[in-house]
Specification:
The strands form eight sheets. Strands 5-4-8-2-1-10-13-12 form an eight-stranded mixed sheet. An eight-stranded mixed sheet has the order 25-26-24-23-30-34-33-32. A five-stranded antiparallel sheet has the order 20-19-18-21-22. It has three domains: 15-242, Immunoglobulin-like, CATH 2.60.40; 255-415, C8orf32 fold; 421-642, Jelly Rolls. The protein is α+β, with helices and mostly antiparallel strands. Keywords: Coiled coil, Signal. Pfam families: DUF3857 (PF12969). Residues 70-216 form the DUF3857 domain. Residues 1-19 form the signal peptide.
């Protein structure tokens, strides 16, 4: 989003003029297509992409400007009703692009071919963040048949782009080709196993790579699937002008200079507006951190983040007047407020959401410049303008454990994550049993800290009153849906408590009958359900992706109760568990449960932690045992046996 906004501001646009020497004009599909053979395993798949060819061409137009044409050619076998429904329409993106050619057809198992009528195309406008599309239906498609389509789009040159070559279905053959004039240097970087592009060509520079039998990448729990897909990033690195001078286009230095023209732009009217705002906030006598927190609190309470482009979204005057701005506008407002307030030591970072793409510090490109952060080296703390649930302190988990570009210096900065001492969930539960032993009374202190506190505060704060009640009930009654809440109290629930990383605590008393079951004279006590519902990992296929936990975290549960008079307790040893991942003789993840009995008082202590945000897939079996141990514990029961009077 940031890249798009910045490009719109800094690059001049022109009407599209057709280039004379595009190669796409000579690229054709088979005049007599036939159904492609598949292996028995591929026949069982819902769909298989037979061919995925993409050709990106840079060439000079009739107006002596550089243009880019992109040709996409796909052939897809559909073997199921679901696949037919998914692939019976073709979407052609047309925002800021001109369709040069488009055609599509279906090929039946019998060999019958039905070609698309171009007049049947319809237009879809403003489809989310994807822009405008032309859409057309594929006629004559049947199970066991194939869809084939091909189109070429003309646009102004993209300085950088990305081609994702992997899918949720198998790709039998994928080809990427990039062509450019000899005075335009295009460089590429392949990720996640796609081959690096080879350089060929004489009159033109041709970069090409081909991969076969790319497996479908499944959705897996605890994985950054989108970031893990095979892909190729490309960019115009430099061009040589008519005077023989080579101009750098996309080094970190050049990219930073272009950002800085907008982010640090100073306008007297904007400065005056900010100075007046700061005077009203009365920050003159505050220390630096108090100033930072006060500025953030005002902006996040008063200004709304909105997607959009245009002057009203980035002008500080307009933002303060309209009470909304886009992310570029908000970072302009933050940095001018900080500078005017006398906060000297801060850096403006641009980074990627690591769930979408990891920031490559060695490949300077706009592709991964998605979101802004502020970093304060003196305090080693961050501020995220776009993430309203976070406050000054930790970097949001989707940006942590990732690199970023420092606009102040064109350097690369690593955004580290919070450790488990600052990022935990704690649940202390004291249980009592009435004489009838038909329900359990509970006094609970449920506390969140760090990333979890930020998320939970946001989930509570940005709700209406009914939503807040549902939030409380949902968290307290997890694993015991019949729980009746007798009393409740929230501590440190306000959003600004996140800046101090204070615990967000939900204190309550409640009772639940579902935890107790009578079995003759004995009572079955479902003690494990006190910790709430737990995730359980099932493994039907071999793990494909490395593990991502979002952030390091620690869970601590303490459950205490007195053994009811007239009963003994059985099954305590079933509570004892210990599963862990060992690396270099150190436990980097663990679920451990144990208990103590002093007189009639039982104390159960459960600890679960993950010291890293990321684990390699070789650790998946051990990781799965740790995760599932929590689910196993939640199913444990104790038996209160009646003491015989005989």
């Amino acid at each position: 989003m940031i890249k798009t906004l910045l490009t719109a501001l800094l690059l001049s646009s022109a009407s599209l003029a057709l280039a004379q020497d595009f190669n796409y004009k000579t690229y054709e599909w088979e005049t007599r297509p036939a159904i492609h053979p598949l292996s028995p395993e591929e026949e069982k798949e819902g769909a298989v992409i037979i061919k995925d060819t993409r050709i990106i061409e840079y060439a000079m137009g009739e107006d002596a400007r550089l243009y880019m044409a992109k040709t996409l050619h796909k052939i897809i076998r559909v073997n199921s009703d679901k696949a037919m429904e998914e692939y019976n329409k073709v979407y052609v993106p047309v925002t800021n692009q001109k369709i040069l050619s488009v055609k599509a057809r279906s090929i039946a198992k019998s060999g019958k071919i039905v070609e698309m009528d171009n007049n049947s195309m319809k237009e879809l406008k403003n489809v989310g963040e994807y822009g405008n599309f032309k859409i057309f239906a594929i006629e004559g498609l049947e199970k066991g048949g194939e869809v084939e389509y091909m189109y070429t789009l003309l646009s102004s040159p993209k300085e950088s782009g990305r081609e994702v070559m992997q899918s949720d279905v198998k790709v039998k053959q994928a080809t990427l080709e990039i062509l450019s004039p000899r005075n335009v240097e295009v460089v590429t970087q392949s990720y996640n196993g796609f081959p690096q592009l080879d350089v060929q060509g004489k009159t033109k520079i041709i970069l090409t790579a081909k991969a076969e039998n790319i497996p479908a990448l499944r959705d897996e729990e605890y994985a950054t699937r989108k970031a893990n897909l095979m892909k190729v990033d490309y960019k115009i690195a430099s061009f040589t002008n008519m005077y023989g001078t080579t101009v750098d286009v996309s080094s970190w230095r050049v990219i930073t200079e272009r950002y800085n023209k907008v982010v640090f732009e100073e306008k007297p009217k904007e400065y005056n507006k900010v100075a007046k705002l700061l005077k009203n906030l009365k920050i003159e006598r505050m220390n630096e951190e108090q100033k930072i927190k006060t500025i953030e609190q005002y902006i996040k309470n008063a200004i709304t983040l909105r997607d959009g482009s245009g002057e009203e979204y980035i002008s500080i005057e307009d933002i303060l007047s309209n009470k909304f701005g886009n992310e570029l506008g908000l970072i302009r407002l933050y940095q001018l407020c900080l500078k005017t307030a006398g906060v000297a030591n801060y850096q403006v970072l641009v980074s990627s959401n690591r769930y979408e793409a990891r920031f490559d510090e060695f490949f300077a490109s706009f592709n991964n410049l998605q979101h802004f952060l502020l970093y304060f080296p003196k305090y080693h703390k961050y501020l995220s303008p776009a993430n309203v649930e976070y406050r000054y302190g930790m970097a949001p988990y989707m940006f942590a454990n990732n690199h970023s570009l420092v606009l102040n210096s064109a350097a690369v900065h690593y955004i580290d994550g919070a450790d488990t001492t600052l990022n935990y969930i704690r649940k202390d539960v004291r249980l009592t049993f009435p004489a009838e032993m038909d329900y359990v009374e509970m006094n609970v202190a449920y506390a969140w800290n760090g990333h979890r506190a930020a998320g939970m505060r946001g989930a509570y704060h940005y709700q209406n009153e009914q939503g807040k009640e549902e939030f409380i009930k949902g968290n307290l009654s997890s694993g015991m849906e019949d729980a009746q809440i007798i009393s409740k109290k929230l501590i440190n629930e306000k959003m600004d408590h996140s800046a101090e990383n204070q615990e967000f605590v939900l204190q309550s008393s409640l009772k639940a009958g579902s935890l107790m079951e009578k079995a003759g004279n004995d009572i079955i006590f479902n003690v494990g359900r006190v910790i709430g519902k737990q995730t359980e990992l099932y493994q039907e296929n071999e793990r494909q992706q490395d593990i991502d936990m979002s952030h390091p975290i620690q869970y601590t549960y303490q459950i205490s109760f007195a053994i009811p008079a007239g009963y003994t307790v059985k099954g305590m040893d079933d509570l004892v568990m210990d599963h862990y991942i060992l690396e270099k003789k150190e436990k980097i993840a663990q679920f451990a449960a144990n208990y103590t009995i002093h007189g009639q008082t039982v104390t159960i202590l459960v600890k679960e932690f993950y010291t890293q945000a990321e684990y390699t897939k070789k650790n998946y079996d051990a990781f799965r045992k740790v995760i599932n141990a929590a689910a196993d514990f939640s199913k444990t029961v104790l038996v209160f046996e009646r003491i015989s009077n005989e």
